[in-house]
Design brief:
Low-confidence stretches: 5-25, 142-147, 225-238, 240-245
Helix content: 40-55%
Number of domains: 1
Radius of gyration: 23 Å
Strand content: 25-35%
Largest sheet: 7 strands, mixed
Mean pLDDT: 76
Shape: elongated
Length: 254
């Protein structure tokens, strides 16, 4: 084999190895960033088992993400994701703007604790809005714009999310609702991209909105069943069921 050919092959091998190392490093950077910056944005704990990115293919995965609850809530977590897959534009990894083609989350568990209007998820969203909306935080984000990565997410899909409802007015009896699909597209497609804080806000708003919609339908159905039960029983039992129905209806006023 001629020397120039050997040198060329050697250069290619070195580049491939370098890209693989960069990929694993980026995974570690993402994990560290999520676990350190994430809690500042949401004001709750966020843990990740691991993040892997393969720059040659642009594929990647996130494993074991757990988002905790604000103070005052007793459930183990707000959101738990066992595994999510992502597809990144390989050429963007070394640029100022990382382009994420797709993020797919299958079967996450979401806990809604409290009431329909005020619960752990609404509190987390308030925390995110405080972070992204504050003048000082805006200035801080703009000040870091020159050195931090911009983001673009073409597609963010959550499928078959299981929402576990824990409402006192339902006697804390378990109620689970499945949200078939949550989908966002074209986030940060402009030249300015989207900040991690604003991306978190957009995703969380959609998760909260869709979860609340399906939970509202489920709780309404429970209320209808209780109302029908009032008509079928009498005396003290009727009065007890009536109070339970009124309690369910009061959820919509909170």
């Amino acid at each position: 084999m001629k020397k120039p050919v050997k040198i060329a092959i050697g250069v290619v091998v070195v580049l491939v190895v370098a890209l693989v190392i960069i990929g694993f490093s980026i995974g570690g950077i993402i994990k560290t960033g999520v676990e350190t910056v994430g809690p500042k944005v949401t004001k709750v704990s966020i843990k990740l088992d691991g993040v892997g990115v393969m720059p040659l293919s642009g594929g990647g995965s996130v494993k074991g993400m757990v988002i905790g609850n604000p103070e005052g809530y007793t459930s183990a977590f707000a959101i738990k994701v066992d595994k999510a897959s992502l597809s990144i534009s390989p050429g963007s990894l070394l640029s100022d703007k990382i382009v994420v083609k797709s993020i797919q989350v299958e079967g996450p568990e979401i806990t809604m604790e409290g009431g329909l209007k005020e619960n752990n998820l609404t509190q987390i969203l308030k925390n995110i809005e405080e972070f992204t909306g504050g003048a000082e935080n805006k200035a801080a984000e703009e000040g870091k714009a020159g050195s931090s990565k911009k983001l673009q997410v073409d597609e963010f899909i959550v499928k078959n999310a299981k929402v576990n409802v824990i409402f006192k007015m339902l006697g804390n009896k378990p109620l689970s609702v499945t949200v078939p699909e949550i989908k966002l597209t074209n986030l940060g497609t402009g030249p300015e991209g989207i900040t991690p804080g604003d991306l978190t806000k957009r995703v969380f708003e959609e998760i909260l909105g869709q979860s609340t919609k399906f939970v509202t339908d489920a709780v309404s159905q429970v209320g209808k069943i209780a109302t029908d039960a009032v008509k079928d029983v009498g005396g003290a039992a009727s009065e007890t069921t009536k109070k339970a129905t009124e309690g369910i209806k009061s959820l919509f006023k909170k």
